[in-house]
Structure formats: structure tokens, C-alpha cells
Amino acid sequence: MVKDQSAMEEIRPLEKGIVLIVDDNQSNREMCGINLEREGFSPFFARDGGECLDVAKKIMPDVILLDVVMPVMDGFEVLEKLREDSATSEIPVLMLTVKSETKNIVKALKLGANDYLKKPFEMDELIARIEKLVGLKNIMSSLGEVSENLRLRTGQLESELKKGLAETSALKKYLTHSQKMEALATLSKGIAHDFNNLLFLIMGYIDMTMFDFSGDPVSADNLEKAMRAAKRAKHLLGRIVAFNAPENRELMPVKLQTIVVETLEIITSTLPSEITITTDINMECASVMCLPSHIYQVIITLCMNACHAMQEKSGHIEVGLNELEISSAKGMKKLNLPPGKYIKLTVADTGADTGGEKANVRLEKACASSPEATQARDGTEIGLMLVCDIVKKLNGVMTTEAGADRTTYCIYLPVVG
What we know:
The chain is an alpha/beta fold. It folds into three domains: 12-121, Response regulator (Rossmann fold); 139-243; 252-414, Histidine kinase-like ATPase, C-terminal domain (Heat Shock Protein 90), CATH 3.30.565. Helices cover 54% and strands 18% of the residues. The protein contains 13 helices and twelve strands. It has helices at residues 26-38, 49-59, 75-84, 102-111, 123-162, 168-212, 217-243, 256-268, 292-309, 329-335, 356-366, 371-375, 379-393, and strands spanning 17-22, 41-46, 63-67, 93-97, 115-118, 252-254, 275-281, 288-290, 315-326, 340-349, 397-401, 407-414. The strands form three sheets. Strands 2-1-3-4-5 form a five-stranded parallel β-sheet, with helices on both faces. Strand 3 (63-67), helix 3 and strand 4 (93-97) form a beta-alpha-beta unit. The radius of gyration is 28 Å and the shape is elongated.
């Protein structure tokens, strides 16, 4: 038998999580509770909207099954109050009702419902939807914890760095760690925002199509859009996991074009809408000896510096990746590189601090090696210092190119073989 509401304090959550069933019909509550408990969930009950609000705060369920048609306070009113309360605003809510008109579905979604199921329903479908909502809730909770941990750790590292370090090698190590943490925190925030929007689209399109589908082109188009949104969310999460994954510290042959494309895809979601990015990437470029994290850090640093140079106003960033061969004496002397094939990575911006001479001076300051010079640098110069250090370790060269209305940083890395 399903445990009674009065035994709330004694129930230990089962493996799959806690589900609060809100329905004024006792038979409906018991039927759902028995099936949920059989599937490994811990069911709790509320007979009306007021009881739902009280119980939800006490047990903080993983999902709320909320009936729309109830006396005194209907499901829409209860949902609105749940979303207004910070304690319950993030709990996933699955609406249950005989009202399947599109206007009711739209109303529920606008008020913050995560899913919508018409009565009568198949119990297998209800279980599947609950499992989906619990899974999404766990993902979002994990992302929130990661972002908060990154923010706290970044703050700790910044405090430590302000005290100063005597040895240049120790300073660079902490700066690299701190900047990667800052970048991850920024990216996590942007991805979490995108993920919320994508989930709203998924729920909206799928539910509207499910309850109003008649084979017409509009419904078919809704399904297609929902699928694209789901794939996009999965892809973005995969990128952030890959970015933060531990890797072999030995240099290896790496195709830069794939990493550049993936990194720009993540960066784009964090930039202001007024700043655009275009690319000129040769997908046939040969490999270079490096670590993927090297290229992630170089691209993120240069693009974020470009965004800062634009002072977060409207502007344009251009990223290029091409293969070239240096054979002339003039080219070798200018770049101080031996003859051979190289990958040229460029990042250009239309920021206010443009001009080849200014960029050269900034790059020279950033590449200074003394601790005194390091302590005097601003955030942009510290980022450039880290990029210079990476490029040197990869036997490459970093330069600037003069332009009337832009600053372009160029990185030359030797091709493998």
C-alpha cells in the first residue's frame, strides 16, 4: 500500500526520487502513488492547492504532479504561486488535466509548467515523463553546483594571486589555473542559460504537437524544431564536459580546425548580441604538436580580450585558420622561424584599441619575463602572457599585423612531419 500523508516524516526517499501528487480525487492519488512506488519513487500526497504549497516546502520533491481542475484554487493558480516562491520556483511541475485545448497548454507553459499530460493517460507514459523531468532536474542541479564551485574557487585563486608570488613559474601556474576557472565559470553560465531556453522550446513544441496534432505541416514543423533544440542542448553540454575533462599531458598531433570550431561555438553563447564572430577556417589543415587544452585557452583568451577591447559595445571578431609554407629569406627573417610548413591562426577585432603599433607594444609587454613586469600588467596583458608562453612551448611564434581599423594577432605553429 502507498504510505499515507501523515507518515511523511518517516518515509525515506526511494532510489528514483520524491514525487508530490496533488489531486482532489483520492482514487487518482492512490492509483498514481501505487504505480510510482512500484517503479522506485517515493510518493507524497496533497488534496488541494493550499496543502500542495505547504507540503512542497517541507519535502522539496523532485517532481510535482499537479491536477488543473480543483476546488478553491485551481492548478494554474497553484503553479503561479509555486513559481513566485524562491523555495519552490525550480521544482519541475507536470500538469494533469482533461483540458487539452491549445490555449490551456500555452497558459500552463507560460506560467512555468515543465510538462502537460491529458487525462486519462497510460501509466507507462506518466512514469516516462516523470523520469525525464527528474533527469533534467539533476542535470541542471549539477550545472549549478559546478558553476558555483568554479566561482568560489576562482575568487580564492584571485585572492591568493593578489598577495604576489616571488617565482615567475609559480605565478604562471596559478594564473593559468585562475584564468581557466574564470573561462569555465563564464561558459557554464552561458550554457545554463541556453539550456533553460532550449528545454522550454522542447517542452512547448512537443506538448503542443502531442495534444493538437492532426498531421498538418505546422505540427510536423514543431516536432522538427523540438528535435533540433534537443540535439543542440546535448551538443553544448558535451562541449563543456570535454573542455573540463582531464587529459594526457604529453604533446600529441592535433587537428586545430575541429577544436577552433567547437571552442567558438561555446564562446558565441557567452558574448553580447552586439558582438559577432565570423570565421575563415581551412578544414583540411594538417596537424600540430600540442594539447587540446592549449588551443582552447588560446582561442578563449584572444576572443575574450577582443570583446574587452570593444568595451562590450557592437563590434566584430574574425577568426582564421590556414596552412602556409615559409621558404623565402624575408619571411624567415620577419617571423624568426625556420623554413617549413606552418598553421597560421589569426584573431582580429574592431575594438577601440586598434592599430599595429599599439598591438605590438602590448604584445611586447605581455611577453616580458620578469616578475616585476608581470605584477604591473592588466588582465589583458596577463592573458596575452599566457598565450605567448603556450606558443613558445609549441615552438611557434606570435605576432601582430597592422590595420587601419582592427587589431590582428597571428600565431604560427609548425606542422607535424
